[in-house]
Write a structure and sequence with these properties.
The chain is of the alpha+beta class and 197 residues long. The chain has seven helices and nine strands, in the order H-H-E-H-E-E-E-H-H-H-E-E-E-E-E-H. A five-stranded mixed β-sheet has the order 2-1-3-4-5. Strand 3 and strand 4 form a beta hairpin. Helix 1 crosses helix 3 and helix 2 runs parallel beside helix 3. The longest helix has 17 residues. It is globular. Bound molecules: zinc ion (2 copies). One zinc ion binds next to helix 2.
Length: 197
């Protein structure tokens, strides 16, 4: 078990379903962001998190910061990068956190395991040991070795708007007006607009 086995980490693992390197990273990133931005876990939409991947790390970011898709203060940009940007709307401060851990760069075990897996060998046992070790290393790494934190300026992405909903002329289901498509002079939803006619 990692040394830094705090209570909120245990709850984060429970929320996500397992401990893994991605979750460990998201946990460290989110904790650093709250500290840098002087924010506790907010109950409202004061904190905005922009995640550049939809990996396990995003679950820890949600759980620790309280930013969620539903509230509109968790924003996903599909860049496949371990980069996380946080804004505090109250103080107007922001930080960009980029993962930069090199602790496993030269670890020969990963390519070796991969090779065996490709050869059809069952490596699930060893893989989970390796992953657990990696998660523990990330939880215990010095912050400066794990991530680069830089302040950001500029306004945070917009607040959740109340949007009008309209009814699709084809399927009759309601959808957000801004997502409508025009086809043959009718406003319809995206799934209907993508169906062949
Ligand atoms: Zn995971
Ligand atoms: Zn429709």
């Amino acid at each position: 078990m990692p040394e830094r086995f705090d209570e909120d980490l245990r709850d984060t693992i429970q929320f996500h379903g397992h401990l893994c390197p991605g979750l460990a990273l998201g946990y460290r990133v989110a904790k650093a962001a709250l500290r840098e931005l002087d924010a506790g876990r907010p109950d409202d939409e004061e904190l905005v998190a922009v995640v550049e991947n939809d990996s396990c790390a995003a679950d820890a970011v949600q759980f620790i910061t309280g930013a969620t898709f539903g509230k509109g203060n968790l924003i996903f940009r599909d860049y496949g990068k371990h980069v996380y940007t946080f804004y505090n709307r109250r103080t107007r401060k922001g930080v960009r956190i980029s993962e930069d851990y090199r602790g496993f760069d030269d670890d020969p075990r990963f390519p070796a395991l991969r090779k065996r897996e490709e050869a059809g060998e069952d490596i699930s046992q060893e893989r989970s040991v390796y992953m657990m070790e990696k998660a523990a290393a990330i939880l215990n790494a010095a912050e400066g070795e794990l991530m680069t934190i830089t302040p950001v300026t500029g306004p945070p992405p917009g607040e959740a708007k109340i949007r009008k909903s309209v009814r699709c002329a084809v399927c009759g289901e309601k959808f957000m007006e801004s997502r409508g498509r025009m086809k043959n002079g009718k406003t319809i939803c995206i799934p209907c607009s993508e169906k062949e006619d």
